Amino acid sequence: MSRALKKVQAFTLHEMLVVLLITALVVGMAFSVLRLVQVQMNGISSNYERNTEMRLLRQRLWMDFNAHDRIWYKNQDRNLLLVNGISEINYRFQEDMVVRELDTFHIKINELNPYFGAGSVDEGEIDAMDLFIGEKDRTRIFIYKRNAATSYINR
Length: 155
Known about the structure:
Layout: H1 13-67, E1 70-74, E2 79-83, E3 88-93, E4 98-100, E5 103-105, E6 109-116, E7 119-120, E8 124-125, E9 128-133, E10 139-144, H2 149-153
Antiparallel strand pairs: 1-2, 1-8, 2-3, 3-4, 4-5, 6-7, 6-9, 9-10
C-alpha cells in the first residue's frame, strides 16, 4: 500500500502572522476612533446639560420675578425672598448651585448684582438682578420686573 503524500493547501506561518498583525492594527484603529467619538459625545452632552440648567434657571427666575410683588435680597447669606399675597419663594445662591425651595440648579454663579430703581443695592428690596454664570464664557442673565406703587411707597 503505497500512499502518495498529498500536500494540503494551507497558509504558511508567515502569512498567518501577517494577517493577525493587520487584523490587530485595524481593530486597534477602530477602538481608537470609537474612543474619540465617545469623548466628543460626552463633551456635547455636558455642554447641553449646562445650557439646559441655565435656561431653566433663567425661565424660573423670570416667572417668579413677574409673579411676585415684593422681592428682597440679603447679601450676607446670598438669599433671595420673593413674596406676593399667596406665596413666598426662597432662593439660596450657594457656591456651586442655586437652590429654589425643592429645586436645585447645578450652576456656578460667579457674580450677582442686585438693583432697585436702576441703582445698585447691596441688600433690601430689589427689582432687578444681574447674574454672571460660567468660568470660560461668563454668560449673563439679567432679570427685572416692573414695580408696583407699593414698592415705592414702602421704601
